[in-house]
């Protein structure tokens, strides 16, 4: 297939790329993060950058946004050399990045965030708050962002925060925006709205570099795709000319036919004992009367969009929220809701939704993070033997295919997807009776996803129970049953063999008439067994 990046189209009449990186190399100690890498983004182009976890994508972003300097190589914006390192204003007027984790300040209002450090014309002039709000209103209106400028940023949804960040970037004059896994925390509707906005901006000449592990999104949104593998540029091609299989092969260096999502397990026997039972769980303002059970040997999916309450139900099973009503038992033992120690004692393991807030201790090593929950296994009488910790972690690194120089590497030095694997490793380390995994493959590349899901399947195959809380169809496909929540209630249940569009419709609350979207959990179950899921 053609590598269109090797000979960039330049010449009279061809506008210079909004961003162009050539010969970029970057090392972190012994790790080569980028080796002679390149990318070229044309004005108004929607360009995808894909690659496996640790391929070097975020490292490139940090160079393109002036956060880090390459060891060697050249960066140009619209034909001009990149601004001096540290000249924040100049970088901002050329490029902005919207990260999965927001960079806006939660305690400030939207208007304050938009005009942070530029509230008044001069250092001695007072800030005119009324004027600031009006300017914010104009700015948001100009880019069609329907957000109240006086709202606190922390009260915005993920989607609204991203729109505010995009508006802020455009207001600095940038016509090149990098989106680093922007859809990871959005549900299907949020993704559609984001894509609509991006297409609209693209028509106005804004170019995007779009990073995602969801390859379908690349096909939906982008015209050009660049693949990195093992720190190097592999290819750049028009998306329309690169089939899904060829794209996966370029990312992995292997034939795509070897990659399948786990799902062939026979699943649980119907008479297997119930390991997890949730009965009439009510969290005020979140969910009401949720009942579900997971048997030994079973993987159950708890699906739902952002406002469905499915994540909070998963977190409550792990002791993170106190319930107003209802009972949770694991192997017949009651979990005291709102008590993490109680959930741990009865054998609940959790893969949390946000690995940064709930998962990892950043400056500690992979070994320490992976074994935090199992220190009692690492030495006698409450001691922790470093050699045992390292051996334990070494097994996990191999087991979960974690790309790290060694067990003593701090987790902050790992790529996002590899950090996620450490979080899963930690949950698995306790050998839980019930594993609650919330969006476990978030940020994980296509091949590692298969790996993580098959490890979760193995937990159940070993006689334990797993609950996958997710709206990702790939995650749900390994489940023996999928329970769907909508606006705080269980509305449907599917046995294996469901059709994508049917489950998506129920998640979205547009059941399409196939599934009884009853508000009563007791009468909501339905099964479809005629299709391959
Ligand atoms: N600050 C750092 N110190 C040490 N190593 C680092 C640092 N930042 C990145 N690396 C290493 O550089 C390599 C590339 O990482 P990078 O974050 O760019 O990958 P990525 O393609 O963005 O992966 P992911 O899809 O998981 O986000 C990895 O091996 C990573 O461990």
From TrEMBL:
It holds the Pfam family ABC_tran. Signal peptide: none annotated. Keywords: ATP-binding, Nucleotide-binding, Repeat, Transport. SMART domains: AAA. Residues 516-525 have a biased composition (Low complexity). CDD domains: ABC_Carb_Monos_I (cd03216), ABC_Carb_Monos_II (cd03215). Residues 1-22, 514-533 are annotated as: Disordered. One of its GO terms (molecular function) is ATP hydrolysis activity. InterPro entries: AAA+_ATPase (IPR003593), ABC_carbohydrate_import_ATPase (IPR050107), ABC_transporter-like_ATP-bd (IPR003439), ABC_transporter-like_CS (IPR017871), P-loop_NTPase (IPR027417). Residues 19-255, 270-512 form the ABC transporter domain. This is Sugar ABC transporter ATP-binding protein. The lineage of its organism: Bacteria, Bacillati, Actinomycetota, Actinomycetes, Kitasatosporales.
